Amino acid sequence: MKLDLSPDWKSHLKEEFKKTYFKELLDFIALEYQNSICYPPLDSIFAAFEHCSFDQCKVVIIGQDPYHGPNQANGLCFSVAEGTSHPPSLINIFKELASDVDKTYPLSGNLEHWAKQGVLLLNATLTVRESKAGSHQKMGWETFTDQVIKTISKDKSDVVFMLWGGYAKEKVKLIDTKKHHVLVSGHPSPLSANRGYWFGNKHFSRCNEILTSLQLDPIYW
């Protein structure tokens, strides 16, 4: 399997790639993609790292699992392939975005343009079998993505981490909150959002306020 990561990611994570668990993980994924329908497409598994280099990364959004339906997952958390209907969580993300920054609800659910501006859209688990949510959890992906978060925390400063929902909030223990900025909210899923834990968090404008205060370019959401 080709590791489609920018050279700076490869440099920072090179020791991780040598570890036994990672080699076993890649062997497992290769067999899964050979024997079952899995998502995202094989060449998009590491898309989050391809579109957002380590040096460019200034915002991190953490998801849990890729979408497990046809033509949805494209390797970026919460994002869907061009022309795909928006899943419920993404609908609520866009509703909050439109309200927060006075933006028209986006037509495309493809978030590559966020990634290319320095937003790492990181799922904790990078692959999934079709129609089986969580099917590739606890096979090694979480060990790898936790190390990604730790590496960002250790080797960068003033990154904005946007943690949505209980699962993402647990990742705060991997982040040095003295040198980074953490925004916490309920999950954008309908269950959480309809209970009042998502709408009104203003994470998009708050993130840009932080970036502007650091004399960094805000994200054009």
Automatic annotation (TrEMBL):
CDD domains referenced in this protein's UniProt entry, alphabetically: UDG-F1-like
The cellular location(s) given in this protein's UniProt record come to:
Cytoplasm
SMART domains under this entry?
UDG (SM00986), UreE_C (SM00987)
Q: Name one GO biological process term.
A: base-excision repair, AP site formation via deaminated base removal
The EC number of this protein is 3.2.2.27
Q: What InterPro entries has UniProt attached to this entry?
A: UDG_fam1, Ura-DNA_Glyclase_AS, Uracil-DNA_glycosylase-like, Uracil-DNA_glycosylase-like_sf
- The annotated active site, in chain numbering, is 65
PROSITE patterns membership: U_DNA_GLYCOSYLASE (PS00130)
Kindly state which keywords UniProt assigns to this record, in alphabetical order.
Answer: Cytoplasm, DNA damage, DNA repair, Glycosidase, Hydrolase
Cellular component, GO, one term: cytoplasm
Q: Which residues form the Uracil-DNA glycosylase-like domain?
A: 50-211
Specify the domain of life of the species encoding this protein. Answer: Bacteria
Any one Gene Ontology MF annotation carried by this entry is:
uracil DNA N-glycosylase activity
Q: Spell out the reaction equation it catalyses.
A: Hydrolyzes single-stranded DNA or mismatched double-stranded DNA and polynucleotides, releasing free uracil
Q: Name one Pfam family in it.
A: UDG
- What protein family is recorded? Belongs to the uracil-DNA glycosylase (UDG) superfamily. UNG family.
- Job of this protein: Excises uracil residues from the DNA which can arise as a result of misincorporation of dUMP residues by DNA polymerase or due to deamination of cytosine.
What name goes with this protein?
Uracil-DNA glycosylase
Q: Which organism is it from?
A: Galbibacter marinus
